Amino acid sequence: MIVYSNKRFLVVDDFSDFRSSVKAMLTQMGAQHIDVAASGAEAIALCGKTRYDIILHDYNLGDGKNGQQVLEELHQRKLIGPHCIFVMVTAESSQAMVMAALEYEPDAYLTKPFNRASLQQRLDRLVERKQVLAPILDALAAGNQAGVLAACDTLLANQPRLAPLCQRYRANALAALGRDAELQTLLQAIIDERPLPWALVMLAGHLLERGHLDRAEALYEQGISQFPMLPTLYDGLARAKQVRGEQLKAQVFLEQAVKISPNNPQRQAELGRLARANQDPDRAVRAFRQAVNLGRHSAFRDPEHHLSLADSLCAQAGDSAPGPKVLLEIRQTMDDLNSSWRDNDALAARGELLQATALQRAGKTADAAQMAKNAAERLANMEDFFAADTALQVAAQLRALGQEAQADQVLSSCAEIYGDDPKVMAGIAEQTSDPDILRGGDQAMELNRQGMQLYQGKQFPQALEAFRNALALQPRNISYALNTAQSLLRLLLSAPDPALREECLDCLQRVRNMPPGDPRFERYNKLREKAESL
Amino acid sequence: MSDAPEEQSLDFSTVIASTVHDMKNSLGLLMQSYGQLVERLPANEHDSTERGVIEYEFLRLNGMLVQMLGLYKLGVNQLPLRPSYLELEEFLEDQLARHHDILRSRHIEGTYEVDEFGLMGFFDAELVGSVVGNVINNAIRYTRSAIHLRAAMDGDQLVITISDDGSGYPPAMLENQSDYILGINMSTGSTGLGLYFGQRIAELHQRNGNSGHIALSNGGALGGGEFRIWLP
């Protein structure tokens, strides 16, 4: 007999009749703490205040977030832990939610209508299951992956029949620990026994990441023949084709995935990017429009979707001048961008440049010039900086709009910040032949090279000197700052020194605003954690 | 900035399907409101005959609508199979729980047994559940006093059996069951359609070149009709 009197319940449905009917059922089962919410936003707010044991969430809430989006956001914001039971209530085992994301699956689906006996039977089982798995869930909640594996082993030694319940936890733990060989063996064994969709997708993705394209593709194709309605499989095939450089085929597969599951903003945006690269602006516009609309309530909301939509709209007009309808949509999209991400100069400037470009092509020269001037002023006063490819794009736009000085300024900042990357320098060279910009970083780069050699030769004090000098020449360069910080840390580990520690933290402080998605962010975090712990 | 939905050719079956979808939602609301109304009735009114009829017909209608939607999705190849490992005890208990009220009000005893302790199956609980649910619904109509569910292994296939103690399926139906199952003869309306649906769902489950199937017989555990579904 499961006791529900000490469990905290949350019932989410937009129909008040349904909420009260479920509440009545739960009360009959002995529940005493039952909160209700009418919308996803309300549910998320409540989860921020209370740790619920059991959440019954309607999938389709009318306007606003749907159940899957709420579940994703709750996971991302860590508002529910592994012990929480999340039941998705649906009107039918419906098409639109066909595994919107395999990553965040609810613990169970419950189809409306249901009676108290069904609800109780289902909840009894779920609670029992979580109780059995408690040692695994405890380790998972503590972020202890090795503990998850140990708990799985203990559990299976006593009750081998629980194997199907443990496999996924085991696989995720092996993946988190980077134990690739064991993970592959486990997944292959699972698939050989039964083609479990999650195991198929995980193994194929794993192989794809490690460059085993043929095997990954074969797995995806095998999966599609068995589960033709699983969009993740088409996503995977599209990624494999992209790695092979077959962009057109990739787009075809991604379109299939979108057709099956049109409600995922990230997938729509990915399709938009491919279509844009494939010179298919019509498709790109439609995909980015969907990405913007769907993203409105999603944890995966991304300003790049807005900017890409505006850019694709402009490209859609081709050689002809964009009409008033197109200009209007671009302006509305950028207004929406600015009101969704307030006080963000980098985004606002990029929006203005896109609008200026469109206006110029529509022959509205004066408006375009004003808009470009606004953007240039914003950029001149901006504290943080773009990612390298964005910076190159912005510089090109500025130049095309007659803002030569600001374009050079952006290129010169770009050279200072990313100049140690030859690819970035090649990109800069395509836009300017100014020796000050192109050669200005040579000396610092040479110092950095020497520093790395010295560091590898374990001559840490000398390496530090070289990096310091490089950084002094180019104070905004991310690599030089990180290299200096790392050398300082190295010295600090053998002999504590408050002044050096201060300098190290200062180096890290300089690059804390590196653009999101920069591959060096991980390294920055590790260095900072270490430095702060000293 | 709204975008028109992806272009789709609008055919008659799509229109029907979307109407059925609405009907199902509407029925769901109706059932819920009815449930709340009943809660407010005095206790001695709770087990009235009419209530049994209403609830039974609710379930029957719902089952038929689910089936129609399922058939439509099969037709356009949109019925996703979402198999997972399940404990059979849990699955059978759930099937009976769905019919708990109606079984009680009709004084039908619902029981289940699982051949071996902790027997696990690998199938789509939602789809197979809708097949089993429809069979239970049908059995409620024709049984005298009991319905029995059983799960067992038949070689390496799982077989789920639903038996009753009624007078069994009509001989003509047993003789021509393959016609119903293959969808050749659907003249008996919902029953024929139900068998066709059951067979299609069973067939979706495949393993090592074997696919699932269904069969009808009389006699069985309780002496009445018996429906079996095999899942590889």
UniProtKB/TrEMBL annotation, chain A:
The modification 4-aspartylphosphate is found at residue 58. This is Tetratricopeptide repeat-containing protein. Keywords: Phosphoprotein, TPR repeat. CDD domains: REC_TPR (cd17589). It comes from Halopseudomonas aestusnigri. One of its GO terms (biological process) is phosphorelay signal transduction system. The keyword Phosphoprotein applies. TPR repeats lie at residues 444-477. InterPro entries: CheY-like_superfamily, Sig_transdc_resp-reg_receiver, ST_Response_Regulator, TPR-like_helical_dom_sf, TPR_rpt. The keyword Membrane does not apply. Residues 8-127 form the Response regulatory domain.
UniProtKB/TrEMBL annotation, chain B:
The keyword GTP-binding does not apply. PROSITE patterns: HIS_KIN. SUPFAM superfamilies: ATPase domain of HSP90 chaperone/DNA topoisomerase II/histidine kinase. GO terms for biological process: osmosensory signaling via phosphorelay pathway. The keyword Nucleotide-binding applies. It comes from the Bacteria. Residues 18-232 form the Histidine kinase domain. It catalyses: ATP + protein L-histidine = ADP + protein N-phospho-L-histidine. InterPro entries: BphY/WalK/GraS-like, HATPase_C_sf, HATPase_dom, His_kinase_dom, Sig_transdc_His_kin-like_C. It is an enzyme of class 2 (transferase). GO terms for molecular function: ATP binding; phosphorelay response regulator activity; protein histidine kinase activity; protein kinase activator activity. Keywords: ATP-binding, Kinase, Nucleotide-binding, Transferase, Two-component regulatory system. This is histidine kinase.
